[in-house]
Amino acid sequence: DAGVIQSPRHEVTEMGQEVTLRCKPISGHNSLFWYRQTMMRGLELLIYFNNNVPIDDSGMPEDRFSAKMPNASFSTLKIQPSEPRDSAVYFCASTKTSGGSGTQYFGPGTRLTVL
Amino acid sequence: GQNIDQPTEMTATEGAIVQINCTYQTSGFNGLFWYQQHAGEAPTFLSYNVLDGLEEKGRFSSFLSRSKGYSYLLLKELQMKDSASYLCAGNQAGTALIFGKGTTLSVSS
Question: Can you give the C-alpha Rg of chain A in angstroms?
Fold first, then answer.
């Protein structure tokens, strides 16, 4: 079975540009999570969806960040406009358990660099 | 909110045994996960403890004491490939996992 798929794997952009990160969860999983990882702050939850509905977006840093899950097999995380402090690795993860508390399986991540 | 504390770094030698501790507030979690993350890669699931006691899985074992808010990951017969970050994560009902900042383990020959 395919794992969680993320694209792109690497993204380099200039400050002020829009960035869209994409995620395809494992088929049959009904919870999806977006995380950001930096050396300073570790792995931070940004938002999670259960059955395509956003449940907790308290980790989204500010209005520049938005996330959507239009169907069970696709989610996007958008940053507009991007800033250098957004540089990080962004992971998507999915789990079969409703409520978000089951074993999470992570995608390979998108390494974002904002110049 | 919940705090999860782990040592930042640990070092050990090949063949040795190392114990990575994780502490958290006792009022929160239903269970405790451990994930392994090699540099430049995604976290991968190692173990999950929902009951008190020791769970053994080959060279790796994980222990949980819910009353003490304490867990550890025990790695035996260390190998160079065990050099990685080890993340402890708490499981609260109805919410997403809460991760600690991870312990970076360096194994030398």
Answer: 13
